[in-house]
Amino acid sequence: MVNEKELQDVVEKTIKRDDVKYIVGYEKGTYGFQVTPSFAYKPEDAKKFIFSPLCVHNLTVFPMLEEKPPLRKGEEPDSRKVGVVVKGCDSRAVIQIIQEKGLDRDKVVIIGIPCTGVVDPKKIEAKFPGIIKNADIKDDGDNFVITIDGKSHKVAKDELMPDKCKTCEYPSPILYDILIGKEIKSTKKEDYKNVKNFEKKSMKEKWEYWEKQFDKCIRCYACRNACPLCYCKECLVDQLNPQWVRRSVDVSENTAWNFLRAFHLAGRCIGCGQCERVCPMDLPLMELNKKLEKDVKELFEYIPGINAEEKPLLAMFKPDDPEEFIL
Amino acid sequence: MKEKFEPNIIGFLCNWCSYAGADLAGTSRIQYPPNLKVIRVMCSGRVNPIFVINALQQGADGVLIGGCHPGDCHYERGNYLARRRMAVLKKLLDYTGIDPNRVRMTWVSAAEGHKFAEVVKEVTEDIRKLGPMQHFKRENKW
After folding, report:
1. What is the value of pTM for the model shown?
2. Residue B66: inside a domain
């Protein structure tokens, strides 16, 4: 478990540096199990920073979302760094963005936190329904200790963890400037069991399943906005000329959007599960992401978000790439 | 009377090889099925997967992408990049229950008029067997 005092001290020390603009971290939300992203601009802001199993967000989106208004005459661009608090999976997102040259390595300060698994907000709300004023979660080996209004419950981790944490291979950040606590070695292995089981189904069954899922989609694009790797200045679906995907919400356009989203993340998705977490209609988006992650691994022996020096998957090739499908 | 299903296939052919190959098939008077509607692109690497998805949305039953043989690309690497993209796209289509054989890729050089005719025949027959594409056809209602 991470020492919060250590985290706050590190954040305070970092924000005092002249070359750091702000640091993104987590703070306690206003009620229940909520934890919200928090921005520290001043040293005293560091006191509100926390880290608990409720810190599910991938904060890597924030440096990418930052608006850069045009400069006034004679104004110098702000070249200060941005600090991010990252878990293991989030650090892979940073690596992937650096690899694609979306961010400069010199422009980010990465504060790494080894993570032992987070809680799925949807699962915990289903388990403890109703309005909860005060709740606290602690990590205790194989269990989460949950304290609600003074009463404490012990729940097995497997019951509350999202699927991505059950097969997490990189609990410790791969790339960091400052690491809080000690590195953890993962004992879990990604075996893509769900994907392999689904692949065995017949074409008809597969489409029936996905048609039902895509039909639910309301195209709010929350999956895109929460994704640290969807940072195009103008998204393809917002484009009007040419308009590839129409704005109507029906199976046809929803399918096109979901295919595109999945395809654009092929070889880039690092499996942080934000898309699925924010989806208001509970679409199993990670199933598509995992499938492509598995195929990319099998076809091209490529794992995204590990090596910032490597070239992006679809921007390079090998002469002996698989081509058994070509006539 | 029930009409026989005639597949509607969109072909994205690269300007330098496959399109010239199709031209050669035409000038050599080689017979091949008229189901292929050709769109000329400058390179198979130009083919964005959205083109394929959009074609399937708008009523195509299949898509054929033609490029130069590996190593022959006019732009040196376009066909290699297209090959990677289509390999991933076909996996995605397969996983969502759309037969990946609806999206085909081929290498046809400018001298292979016969091969082009053979490929079109094969693709047309395959898609005829698969039947019309009705998974996510766009409905024009407004």
Report:
1. 0.92
2. yes
